[in-house]
Design a protein that fits this description.
Radius of gyration: 18 Å
CATH superfamily of the largest domain: Laminin
CATH topology of the largest domain: Laminin
Organism: Trichostrongylus colubriformis
Protein name: Trypsin Inhibitor like cysteine rich domain protein
Keywords: Disulfide bond, Protease inhibitor, Serine protease inhibitor
Strand content: 25-35%
Number of strands: 13
Shape: globular
Distance between the termini: 32 Å
Order of helices and strands: EEEEEEEEEEEEE
Structural class: mainly beta
Low-confidence stretches: 1-19
Number of domains: 2
CATH architecture of the largest domain: Ribbon
GO molecular function, one term: serine-type endopeptidase inhibitor activity
């Protein structure tokens, strides 16, 4: 992810998000108060559209309506837990924030996905994984396997 100020106007910002493949040009709004950020957060002129949460999944905002806004994001090395607090990954299990039909797993990267018959799992990360009988669909939601489209 990178941000670049474009001359001659100091009020124009181009934001490029490599994880979601979005480019957004904005006019910089009034300055956000840095002191509004919480513990383990830092101010940014453009909150990233994609973040890795304690669920262990890269979660992206809707790319078609990408809006760049100032605000707070987790400091490097931290993730949002289910309570939207920035914590170290080793503390994610304290409040993982798993959604419906998910449970915390030591190896969430090998969960079943809709439309994928078999997969090779070489890396293993903890996070939320779909319960037995469920698979993750293209919207990152665990749905019953028979409802996979």
């Amino acid at each position: 992810m990178s941000t670049t100020w474009i001359p001659p106007s100091k009020n124009t910002l181009i934001f490029s998000d490599s994880h979601c493949g979005t480019n957004t040009t904005i006019t910089r709004p009034p300055r956000f108060n840095d002191k509004q950020c919480g513990q383990n957060e830092e101010y940014t002129d453009c909150v990233p559209h994609c973040e890795t949460s304690c669920r262990g999944i890269q979660e992206c905002a809707d790319k078609t309506n990408a809006t760049c806004t100032p605000g707070c994001t987790c400091k490097p090395g931290y993730r949002h837990n289910g309570l939207r607090k920035c914590v170290l990954p080793r503390h994610c299990y304290l409040a993982p924030g798993c959604k419906d039909n998910e449970t915390w797993s030591k190896c969430s990267t090998c969960e079943r996905k809709c439309g994928v018959e078999s997969q090779t799992c070489s890396l293993c990360y903890s996070g939320c994984a779909c319960n037995d009988g469920y698979a993750r669909n293209s919207s990152n939601i665990c749905t019953r396997i028979e409802k996979c489209a």
